[in-house]
Amino acid sequence: MFCEKAIELIRELHRMSDGQLPAFNEDGLRQVLQEMEALYDQNQSDVNEAKAEGRSDLIASIKLRHCCLLRNQRCVTAYLYDRLLRIRALRWEYGSVLPANVRFHMCAEEVQWFSQYKKSLASFMRSLGGGEGLDITQDMKPPKSLYIEVRCLKDHGEFEIDDGTVILLKKNSQHFLPRWKCEQLIRQGVLEHVMS
Amino acid sequence: MFITDIRKEFYDVVTNQRVALLVAADIDAVCACKILQVLFHCDQVQYTLVPVAGWQDLSTAFLEHKEQFQYFVLLNCGANVDLLEMLQPDDDSVFFICDTHRPVDVVNVYNDSQIKLLIKQDDDLGVPSYDEIFRDDEEDGDSGNESDEGSEPSGKRRRFEEGAVERRIERQRAKREWEGRRREILFDYEQYEYHGTSAAMMLFELAWVLTKDTKDMLWWAVIGLTDQWVHDKITHMKYVTDVATMQRHVSRHNHRNEDEENSLSIDCMRISFEYDLRLTLYQHWSLYESICNSCYTSCHFKLWTLNGQKKLQEFLADMGLPLKQVRQKFHSMDMAIKGNLRDVIEESSNKYGMKDIRVQTFGVHFGFKNRFLASDMVHATAALLESTEKDDSASDNFLKALDSLSRGNLDRLHLGIDLAKKKLMAIQQTVASCICTNLIVSQGPFLYCYLMEGTPDVKLFSKPMALILLCKYLLKAFVHSTRNKRCKLLPLVMAAPKDVEKGSVIVVGIPPESETSDKKNFFGRAFEKAAESTSSRTLHDHFDTSIIELKTEDRSKFLDALITLLS
Predict the structure, then answer these.
(1) Which among A39, B200, B223, B274 could bridge B32 via Cys, Cβ 3.0 to 4.6 Å?
(2) Secondary structure (H, E, C), B238-289
(3) What residue stretch is flagged as signal peptide (chain B) (predicted)?
(4) Would you call B41 and A167 a contact, using CB atoms and an 8 Å cutoff?
(5) Which residues contact B55 (CB under 8 A, 6 or more apart)?
(6) H or E stretch at B20
(7) Of B47, B403, B408, the CB nearest to A176
């Protein structure tokens, strides 16, 4: 059946609906493109034949193949676009350096797109605040207090905060630290915000 | 040194600094920690909280954090040992110790620069005066003078020398006398171990002085005090005095809302003074189960005997409570019965010889469903703190117990209540089996009991607080069931397996059971001396010196040494 491969690609993304990025399915994409090429070639030859011999019974199959081609195109662009959206969300979640396992799942073009997105986001942030720059990826929700209480979930070693003091993050110790320093570590899962 | 003005000498000093909080693993410390955390949150004092379970944990935590912190606050640990010698800190580290363990080590009392004690100078401290223990050595300088008298005529010189020698002998004799007296004084001072005012109450006073006290903090202070009573750390007199102090605070907090009727929403927290029954967890259990599993009632009725069971049935019949009602969950009991339950029970218990079935305590009430007595919370949090689930380390349990005290974590509190019920039932069953099989043996100067490895629920008793609770219930039960008058006045030493792989047992000793007991425990020193004399492999890691860990093989020789020591 036509367009099965394209649906496979979409299903793969749909399975990981929580925003995770699966590996780039180069194989699947190539198969879809090959199918599209095959359909296009068949259509081309049928169109020529229909024109030359005036066979109007080929028009239906030409139309069918054309619809399949359009469907494949739509699926592939949806796949690529959804991946780009997920990669964009990663910048907001992880910061500008992505963990190695996530980068492994991106293809070369996506990596390039990511670095360009990073650049434009950085230049935008620099232009805010009257030329001083403002990091808008911090404080995604309005903060209630300057300092928050965090609990350490795994051993992370030493951690330096703005005034130069170093804190030892050992498992099951609790700390009362400035909010902006903790957000990164909370997202990474090293610290947990304790609400009492 | 003792701090006189807790606000100026402690709080103002740490307000702009970063502090390391080292907290021991008992409920009073957990409550004190919560109060201090809220105060620090108000004033945005950055801190790091590290739970410590024993002296080794304390040293490790100190070593890890000494580079980064100058100020350390120790809750319920550190007062009864020479801290500076144990930790060897730099000269600029300052320790604020809020500890209930007494006696306070004399070095900690007289050190002016690095150790600040957040302890009230009550009458019961009895610290020896400075001159009796410390003295500068000046007399060594005099012995050099004799060699300088070179050119004197020989007769005079001999007389002078004799005088000088006599004076030196006199000084040495005085010094030996002084040292002998000093040893005696220190021995008397450090012989008995006991507990002072709750740390949570001390920190609540700090909050009150800063006028930052809230009802939450008051409730935690009440829980800290009740913990001392439940685990039998303070005398009844002291408990009653402290309850009176707390009651003043409670009425002050409740007084604010008296002028407007019904002004507080039902979700607000209301603390009230209760003269309530001494039945553990009775509002979260059925009345019958609670009577069977509370130490006081179970020991008075002797519920491990058939006779005792019959007496219990009589007691319930006497009060007119149908068995069906009494076995139901307390919430579902008939309203008519619940109405004057306390008075009815008090009347009947007087007939059965239980004069103190009611005790002064506090209860809290917030929301439509949530009513807790202070002792309920203590049992729940203690069960969480010492839960024996497989993958939880001691610090995991500490954090869970810390969480359960917040009003938002009611499901954790209910989990704690369930664990506490299991623990109490296990304790009752163990007490019953120990008494029925005569596992308690009199060794002469004390009673001794050993829990074998195959005993059901023995894992629960590898934790110190649970084992101490078992000890106290067992001693009470024994006192009620034995006919030997001499044995009733003996203290109890109990051993239970702690770690089967490492082959160690945990040994605790508690003072004898009596109405007017002053709860002073001499087993700390006794255990130390016995271990030294037999060179047994012991670990004196716990902050209470009467709880030690011992290798199973050394058990018998340790016991023999203890018997000889105490006879």
Answers:
(1) B200
(2) HHHHHHHHHHHHHHHHHHCCCCCCCCCCCCCCEEEEEEEECCCCHHHCEHHH
(3) none
(4) no
(5) B81, B86, B540, B541, B542, B543
(6) strand B19-23
(7) B47
Option in A165, A168, A176 nearest B40 (CB): A176
SS (H, E, C) B343-395: HHHHHHHHHCCCCCCEEEEEEEEECCCEEEEHHHHHHHHHHHHCCCCCCCCHH
Model confidence at B157, pLDDT cuts 50, 70, 90, reads low
What pLDDT does residue B139 have? 45
Contact at CB, B46 and A149, closer than 8 angstroms: no
B315 CB-near residues (< 8 Å, 6+ apart): B301, B348, B349, B352
Interface test with chain A among B36, B39, B49, by most A beta carbons within 10 Å:
B49
Distance (Å) from the C-alpha of residue A13 to the closest C-alpha of chain B? 36
Q: Can you list the residues of chain A whose pLDDT is less than 50?
A: none
Highest mean pLDDT among A126-130, B120-124, B220-224: B220-224
Q: Give chain A positions within 8 Å (CB) of B48.
A: 167-168, 173-176
Q: How far apart are CA B33 and CA A131, in angstroms?
A: 45
* Residues of chain B contacting residue A165, judged by C-beta atoms under 8 Å apart: 18, 68
At which residue do the structure tokens 């218990």 appear? B349
Q: Is A147 on the interface with B (CB under 8 A)?
A: yes
- Mean pLDDT confidence for B327-351: 87
Minimal Cβ distance to A165: which of B68, B398, B399 = B68
pLDDT of B152 higher than 70: no
Cα-based distances in Å from B72 to B51, B225, B444, B489: 13, 24, 45, 42
Give the pLDDT band (50/70/90) at residue B487. confident
Residue ranges of domains in chain B, CATH in brackets: 1-134+188-262 (3.90.1640), 268-437 (no CATH), 439-566 (3.10.310)
| Per-residue pLDDT tens over the stretch B234-254 | 889 899 999 999 999 999 988
Q: Which helix (H) or strand (E) holds B102?
A: strand B101-102
> Which residues of A fall within a CB distance of 8 Å from B41?
145, 147, 149, 176
pLDDT of residue B155: 57
Paired tokens of B492: 């109890």
Closest by CA position to B548, among listed B23, B190, B54, B77? B54
Beta-carbon separation of A176 and B48 below 8 A: yes
Asked if A154 reaches chain B (Cβ–Cβ under 8 Å), the answer is: no
State ipTM. 0.74
